[in-house]
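Researcher: First entry.
Model:
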Amino acid sequence: MYSMGIAVSTLSTAVSSLVGAVLVRNVDRIPGNGGKVSWLSRNINRGHLDYYYWLLTGMGVVNLGYYFLCCWAYGSMDGPPDDQMVESEESHQK
């Protein structure tokens, strides 16, 4: 089970790196069309790195909203706390 956890962790790191690279590539390409200065310009004085960070902030807020939506949809569990469940499992095994 430990090796499965390591594999899932490594896979999630690889996917997040890929998504980050695609995001940077698109942010560099799309706003720079039509002769405009890219947000991620090589000249830091002409670029708009703040727009890129606002985009990341917006994505984080959307992700947080999705998290809250999933928490609300899932709801709370009705039942005994974990301590009582462990005691009931031990009594069934005897």
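Researcher: Second entry.
Model:
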Amino acid sequence: MASTTAAKSGSSFGQTLQFITSIKLQELEKQRLAYYAHAKIIDEAKILGDKGDIIAKVELLAKAVKSWTGSGSLPSDKIVGGKLEMRTLEFWLQQAKKDPSFSHEIAQGWAETLEAHIKHTGMRFDCAKLFGTLFNEWLASGDSSAMVYQAGDDSADVDSMASNTSSDFVDIGRKEMYEQKEKLESIIFDDHPVDVEELKAYLEGLFESEDAGNALDRLRKELKDQGYSLQRKPILRRDVAYAIKGLLASGLMDEEKRTTLKAFQENPTVLDEVASVLNMRMAGLDSWAWPKEGILVEMRRHLNGKYRAFTDPEIIDALLLHHIGVAWQVKLKSSLRRLFDGKAWNRSFVPPTHKVKERWTEQLRGDDGSSSIESRRHNTRKTHFFLSQLTDEASRPSRYDDLVDAPEQDDGTISPAVVKQKLLHIMTTECYLNKALDGTHAVIRSDLEWFGPSLPHTSILTVLEFLGMPRKWLSLRNALV
């Protein structure tokens, strides 16, 4: 019994290692090919050297070294070859251009050092590919301690019977599923033209005032800084754990992939390896794209009878995109909340001045208006309704699920069901208040059908660009659709 359990544990670990290694090899091959395409700059530099323009050759090679952002990229303060400091090279090149007595032998030495570095980095990619291939073959051979567990004949027979039984049943789905699927396809694939200039003019009109303009400038700077730091910040083990937790809470993945993610959670070594893969993909984010064959979209029926479309990406793609999406969610929510609290936001009431607050404090026994009805309305709206579907922290994922009836989660997040209950309580309170003050109260409810899927991607990209999201990230957003 114990040996069987140990064998299955070894099997799971070995299969996981093989899975991670295969993914790393795929990413490594992408980066290797991209680097060799990037390293062709050596041929251009050789032409410049043959013409006798050594300084231009050094400039071209230095630019090639600095511009590479994938695996093996060079920090700005790195010393190449133990003798060439990249941070000061630009100043030396400027002096070499203006000083006729500058030794060309020194410049030639710089060129040789940079060229050797480029070739050495390419060799490192080749060696890493060779080692990864050998390691994967070793795992698959069964000679490793993480050898694959081979099930007995009985289990094979059971699996065979189960597959035969399941193959006899074909779920063709309900009529409503096909109707909603057809509607979704028309929304996604039909062209929905957007007047971009009109949309930009509308957005600019929202920030016409001086306070609004200053708030927009601050927002754009924050988003620019976020875009710069996000790709350069390494993905750690805890980031992978947060991404797995968020994916499991979202209900996006199928049962098989959910089981794999749960297995990842239990193994710190696997989390480190996944983090390594994600860092490789983040480094080559400019060339990221969906698989050529596309991804599966599954229509799932909820208890209320409605169908929703769920994508089924590969695990690594799902983790990477979830990590990036949540990072932008957290930043956008914090930045827009500051905008919501600032002077740029139009409120239904005029915020009291400092002098008015002092008078209220004297007249209301220390209350400066922070407990007033309007203040409570503002705080409730900000806390529970403003951007409520965006998460506050990566470690506390928000769930987009109106069927979750649990009250508050253990991590302090509030479920969609509780948000609806709070809304009903507020509506009831407002009804009693208005009937007591004015004798009448009216409630208007609207439902924008297919609102989320029907938003044109052009509108989304235009709004994000206006708010200041860098073009690199807009390009990734464009690649997603």
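Model: Note on the second entry: The beta strands are 79-80, 84-85, 296-301, 307-312.
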